[in-house]
Amino acid sequence: VVVIVDGPVNQQLATDENGYFTASHLSPGHYTFGYFAPGFQSFTRSLAVDAGDRIDLGNFKLPVLPGSAF
Questions:
Q1: Nearest Cα to Cα of residue 21 among 58, 49, 51, 48
Q2: Burial of 43 (0-12, 13-18, 19+ CB in 10 A)
Q3: How many Å apart are CA 17 and CA 28, to the nearest integer?
Q4: Could you tell me which of 39, 33, 2, 43 has the C-alpha nearest to residue 19?
Q5: What percentage of the chain carries pLDDT values higher than 70?
Q6: How many CB atoms lie within 10 A of CB 33?
Q7: How far is CA 67 from the centre of its chain?
Q8: Which residues pair with 42 in a beta bridge?
Q9: SS3 31
Q10: Could you tell me if residue 67 is left (phi over 0), alpha (psi between -120 and 50 degrees) or otherwise beta?
């Protein structure tokens, strides 16, 4: 899954085989995290990040797009 981090610092990341990722060196501010994978609906989550924060964005599943071969 590709993760796009949009905010004061922009990053493009990939999850590991278990779906985990680390976005490091984020400046304080408001961020939107977008999750994308072929054949699945995208998902976004927005939140504020403060200096020194370690945030767990939780678990979720990307729904399969209708007509996908999954």
A1: 58
A2: middle
A3: 28
A4: 2
A5: 99
A6: 20
A7: 24
A8: none
A9: strand
A10: left
Rounded to 10 degrees, what is the CA torsion of 56, 53, 27, 30? 60
pLDDT digits (tens, 9 = 90+) for 16-44: 999 899 999 999 999 999 999 999 999 99
Cα(26)–Cα(5) distance, rounded to whole angstroms? 10
Task: State residue 69's pLDDT score.
Answer: 78
Residue labelled with tokens 């977008």:
34
Q: For residue 53, give the amino acid letter.
A: D
* Helix, strand, coil percentages in the chain from 3-state DSSP, rounded to 5: 0, 35, 65
DSSP state of 26: P
